[in-house]
Amino acid sequence: MPDSVRLPSSLIPSHYSLEITPNIYGSKENFSFDGFVRIKVVCKEKRDIIWLHSKSLTHTEIRITDSEDRIVPVFSWDLEDKREFLIIAMGESLKPGEIYYIEIKYHGQILNDLKGFFYSSYKDGAGEKYIFSTQMQPTDARKVLPCFDEPALKATFNVTIIRRKELTSLSNMPILRSEERDQELVADVYETTPIMSTYLLAFALGDIDYLQNFTESNIKMRTWSRSSAVEQTKFALELGCKTMTFFEDYFQIKYILPKEDVEDPGRERNVSGLSQPLKRPNLTPTGTL
């Protein structure tokens, strides 16, 4: 058992495959999501226990396999709430130098708290509606998926969001494809991200629309809001394009992602392909976008 709040260095993640199915079609008191994550890791030290981060999640199934798809027996798993660790005990030790895959099915709540996977609301002629977003900084990725939630433990991510057909989803990268799952549901499969920290992972979902423009270096920028307020995002779009161009010129570093989506007033801005809008009081109403 590690003595500090830091994870041991016995496993190093390199890739996450994440699928999120929001359960958001009833009362807001029951908003929740089902998740599945497959984490590719490299073993650095012989261990028969895995430590990773998890907070406020219910884990229903855990499976570990090696690079040849041989199952590593799992004896038990438990949560240490104080340090927000998920501790997995195995029937054999992992071997240094080998690649393993940790697969976890789990369930979580969606709250109106601006942490992890959360919701915000607005009212229109049809009543109260909701937009669902994420805020992973500084250490709330562990509320969305079991993960190695330390900034130095960078990895690539594949994200899939399961949604109803009338909704729109967003994530860090452009959509690779959309697959019908049944008569009502669609799976939006996103392109693989660059190597990045867990706190930069982002996605959003809702009945939303956008305005679009391009920066001088041809980066696609879109500002998203509820459809009735999309025209109010013009200033954010204009200033966002100018700001992107300014910083690319100033630092002589090109933006590494193919697009930037600007969405959700409750989240801090970061270089993740999905960020919050900019407001100018005399041009943009202060109401929820």
UniProtKB/TrEMBL annotation:
InterPro entries: Aminopeptidase_N-like_N, Aminopeptidase_N-like_N_sf, M1_APN-typ, Peptidase_M1, Peptidase_M1_aminopeptidases. GO terms for cellular component: cytoplasm; extracellular space; membrane. Its cofactor is Zn(2+). GO terms for biological process: peptide catabolic process; proteolysis. It is a single-pass type II membrane protein. It holds the Pfam family Peptidase_M1_N. Its main location: membrane. Keywords: Aminopeptidase, Glycoprotein, Hydrolase, Membrane, Metal-binding, Protease, Signal-anchor, Transmembrane, Transmembrane helix, Zinc. Residues 263-289 are annotated as: Disordered. It is found in: Membrane. PANTHER family: GLUTAMYL AMINOPEPTIDASE (PTHR11533:SF276), PROTEASE M1 ZINC METALLOPROTEASE (PTHR11533). This is Aminopeptidase N-like N-terminal domain-containing protein.
